[in-house]
């Protein structure tokens, strides 16, 4: 039986300690960072809602009012009555935010990466793609789906990238694909150096700003804005993290984005995001663009968390972003400690293991949004220290 194959593979995942558990949550708008699990309140310490925007009263009010007026869905794909006036306005604002000609909204950040890359790359004969070794799976899958020639260069290794680029003639079409902030280590790319190489070798660039959107730059437009370097050909971002709603987008040259709009299957044949969600996203974007206090408080909390971890001799990666990876090597150990934090302390932090990180590099990816207090951070670090010491 074919299902026996699936059962054996599931059993192997469990045996290897790689089986993923999903904890049902009911996040509480009245108490950001708290969730209900079978009636019990639990603090979430691994959320991607970096600024707490998903519980912002403005977004809740706007989405509720828009739902009452327009309904819960758009009734079709973007080309079959699914394009709302808010989709159009939001795309115009996103393009302007990033200084590009055109934006296109997708159902998720994963879909934005996969559909845009696979569509654009496949259209250009002989295009070769240079991909950072730690790129997100959505980027990797988009590149693979295109069937192009690809070169994977060591993470953030500018010299290796230059050597790889130099192996191809100046007339060979090239695309460099990389991220601004890498979520598993929390480190940033050498953005300007990579863009310098792209100019020197006549290469296009696709920059994933997922974990920098809302966090970096004077208006939260990402690492590009923070560095004042807007040369990336394409920029991808998401709504489901710092902006607090759902969806993803890509901005870039008009003709290229129009081609994706016209031919990408995952755009054409999927139901459009509801207008109510897009209305809330538009407000979330406005708040993020003026959210310097939120960005300041987020980074201050990250620094306080690192100081407390350092004081307790808890191993973590001291990266330059708001993400704090706490190292807990061993797939069984990281899972045990996660379970104990949840059961005994009411703390939810998801274990991260292979293939998201290398074996032996298991960790918790901790975030401390602006609503977190020093007392809460102290309690989290204390509970983590106890669990690590007693395991």
Question: How does this model look, in words?
Answer:
It holds the Pfam family Aminotran_1_2. This is 8-amino-7-oxononanoate synthase. One of its GO terms (molecular function) is 5-aminolevulinate synthase activity. InterPro entries: 4pyrrol_synth_NH2levulA_synth, Aminotransferase_I/II_large, AON_synthase_class-II, PyrdxlP-dep_Trfase, PyrdxlP-dep_Trfase_major, PyrdxlP-dep_Trfase_small. It comes from Streptomyces hesseae. Helix 4 (85-98) runs parallel beside helix 12 (275-289), helix 5 runs parallel beside helix 6 (137-146) and helix 13 (292-311) runs parallel beside helix 15 (374-390). The chain is α/β, with parallel strands linked by helices and 391 residues long. Strand 8, helix 9 and strand 9 (234-238) form a beta-alpha-beta unit. It has 15 helices and 14 strands. The chain is globular and about 60 Å long. The relative contact order is 0.15. A 7-stranded mixed beta sheet has the order 4-10-9-8-7-5-6, with helices on both faces. The longest helix is centred in the last third of the chain and has 20 residues, at 292-311. It has helices spanning 2-15, 57-70, 78-82, 85-98, 109-123, 137-146, 158-166, 191-200, 223-227, 254-263, 265-268, 275-289, 292-311, 331-345, 374-390; strands at 26-27, 34-37, 40-44, 102-106, 128-132, 149-153, 174-179, 204-208, 234-238, 248-252, 324-327, 347-348, 351-352, 363-366. The mean pLDDT is 96.
